[in-house]
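Mods, move this if it's the wrong board.
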Amino acid sequence: MARPAAALTDGTTAEEERLPFFLAADDVKAAAEAWYRWLKKEKRFALHTLRAYGQDLAGFLAFLAEHLGNAATLDDLRGLRQSDFRAYLSRRRNDGLAATSLARSLSAVRSFFRRLQRDGLVDNAAANLIRTPKRPHSLPKPLSVAAAEQMIETVDSADAAPWLQARDTAILTLLWGAGLRLGEALGLNGDQSPQGDSLTVTGKGNKQRIVPILPVVRDAIATYVKLCPWPIAAGTPLFYGARGKRLDPAIVQKAMRDARRALGLPETATPHALRHSFATHLLAAGGDLRTIQELLGHASLATTQRYTEVDAEALLNVYKNAHPRARAGV
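Not the wrong board. Structure tokens:
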């Protein structure tokens, strides 16, 4: 029988949370683990983001061990200069890391140093003076209304138990109909099963927002709840996996992957694309940006404004395909 992993102070285990900060002195390792738990418990990072940040900081500490010739101590961190952070980014760039991943890595390191300063352990502002690598400008890739409907119909007719079909249908309908992130949907508990016209959602940074619930969304969830063999109540998950545990995001991602292959849709047809579709379809129907920002839970309006570019691009494509002179090329 495998030996249980040692429990951490918050009840999780080091193996479960993958705390990979072994290439650092004990004082830095303790600070890194405290920062990681803070991201999890206080900032409520999504699990994949949490693990990515942990791996990013671990990579930075591993770089420092080689760069400095020893496992970094808090004193070493106090003495780091801008050139040290630039050397780290240069190494990561040479390793083939994309600009988006470089930006996230620097964000993780900055977050750690801000936490060190807040705890009175290290005061070094050099990390904040490094220019963030430019991210490529990319637009959200929503599904068309028809494609979104086909996606939901396909998972509803998948070769699975009726309650699993109903579950996947309810989740995809919720993502498209209310603009939720997948993690937000799967984080709902049984007592949050929508009964009325709205739902309170806890999003990034533990921020709550109220989203309207369409009858079709409410009905899809009610159908699933009726068929689900597991108890759905306060303190239990709303969406269960086949073994009676809270549903893993990978299961929903696989359901959409199978559906998009069956429909011949591009790889961008992911659960998050349904959230993009929610915003884009609202905008196309005359929704204003401020309202869409609130519904999506975006901290910045600039994030929501990307959808105006998607809408303009769609209009341009319609024009090119429909206008007689555009078709004639004159």
